[in-house]
Amino acid sequence: MQEKLKGRMTVPGIVGSMYGGWGFNLSDQDYYIEVPLDGGGTEKQPIPALSANALDLLQLRTRPFFKKQTSDNDLFQETSGSSFADANRVRLLAEAFPARTLATGRQQVNALFTNGDNFDMQTSFENIWSWPRENRNWRHSDLREVAYPYIYSIFDKFVTTGGLIQ
Predict the structure, then answer these.
(1) pTM score, whole prediction
(2) Nearest to 161 by CA among 109, 107, 118
(3) Spans of all domains in the chain
(4) Of 24, 10, 92, nearest to 64 (Cα)?
(5) Residue ranges in the chain assigned as alpha helix (H)
(6) CB neighbourhood size of 3 (10 A)
(7) One digit per residue, pLDDT tens: the chain, 166 residues?
């Protein structure tokens, strides 16, 4: 969720961020349209994707399409942008730049397992043990968090699949 909520939060420090990410720059008049509301008035919405894709790349270097944090203004200066990005690389990656895809573990990635070694832990191991959770659903970190007696068969599968036994 942290990746999806970058730039979309209204309170700082809660899961995502208030800038960057998927939050649109609705302060720059080139990047929004005003849409009438049913009860009167208007609401700012980002320009359509086709219009956004046609924006000039030089313009985007100094006037970002997504929300920016005031303290990151040097990032959008022609003379200081690159050095600012280098100096703040880790923070910008963590807080401002959104992922373009969901986490790899969310779905099977056939390109990584061309020999058929990819498997679904939930369906492969759900009947092997007495699972310590109420709903018996496998969670992202269960490999690390659940006690070995419940998950030893998964480690056995890793050893066998990975050819770790000589």
Answers:
(1) 0.55
(2) 118
(3) 2-95, 104-161
(4) 24
(5) 2-5, 49-53, 57-62, 81-87, 89-95, 121-125, 142-145, 148-161
(6) 16
(7) 777 778 787 777 677 777 877 889 999 999 999 999 998 999 999 999 999 999 999 898 899 998 888 889 999 998 999 999 999 998 888 788 777 766 666 666 666 666 666 677 777 766 555 677 777 777 767 778 888 887 888 888 888 877 777 6
The whole-angstrom separation of Cα 3 and Cα 16 is 7
Q: For residue 18, give both structure tokens.
A: 């208030």
Are residues 20 and 98 in contact, defined by beta-carbon separation less than 8 angstroms? yes
Q: Which two tokens stand for residue 158?
A: 């890793």
Tally of residues, the chain: 166
* Distance from C-alpha of 62 to C-alpha of 81, rounded to nearest angstrom: 9
Phi-psi region of 146 (alpha: psi -120 to 50; beta: other; left: phi over 0): beta
Burial category of 46 from C-beta neighbours within 10 Å (exposed 0-12, middle 13-18, buried 19 and up): middle
